[in-house]
Specification:
The protein is about 30% helix and about 25% strand. The protein is built from 4 helices and 8 strands; from the N terminus they run βαβββαββαββα. The longest helix has 16 residues, at about 140-155.
Length: about 160
């Protein structure tokens, strides 16, 4: 999807999200996971910050193995995330110019499992991606996903 060795060539957009994550997994990570899964998919980069010129740069995560372990614990907890659509290959620790980052490749979710939501409620925890931001879905958008999921499971 992107060449991580040339991270500075990229900007956040509808398929790329950077999160510094120096202090642990940010809460907004889960909103982005939901948004990417419910839209076109995308890549979340932990240990990457956006500079004022909007370019991306690695910051070096102090303990990436712990963050990956924490990530798997949370994403498999249905009280936090409705469904885990990732495989082990989707979450990787990478080294960029001697700095460690984590790349999380989120595929577009199959209609049969949508909406992918967080915090136990599809009506308050379903997000979509638009431009370089995550936006909470309206009740009507969530209802449309639920109807599409029902049709996908029956078909």
């Amino acid at each position: 999807m992107i060449d991580l060795t040339h991270l500075e060539k990229y900007k956040e957009n509808n398929r790329i999200e950077a999160k510094k994550a120096i202090g642990g997994l940010p809460q907004s990570l889960w909103e982005t996971y939901s948004a990417f899964a419910n839209t076109l998919g995308g890549i979340i980069l932990l240990g990457v910050e956006e500079h004022s010129d909007r370019t991306l740069h690695a910051v070096d995560l102090p303990d990436p193995e712990w963050l990956v372990s924490d990530f798997w614990d949370i994403i498999n907890d249905t009280r936090k995330v409705s469904v885990n659509i990732l495989s082990e290959e989707d979450v990787r620790i990478r080294e960029i110019n001697g700095k460690h980052i984590i790349s999380i490749t989120v595929p577009r979710a199959d209609d049969s499992v949508k909406p992918v939501y967080i915090n136990g409620s599809p009506f308050t925890g379903t997000y979509r991606r638009n431009g370089d931001g995550d936006y909470r879905c309206t009740i009507h958008e969530v209802q449309a996903m639920i109807i599409a999921a029902s049709s996908a499971r029956q078909g």
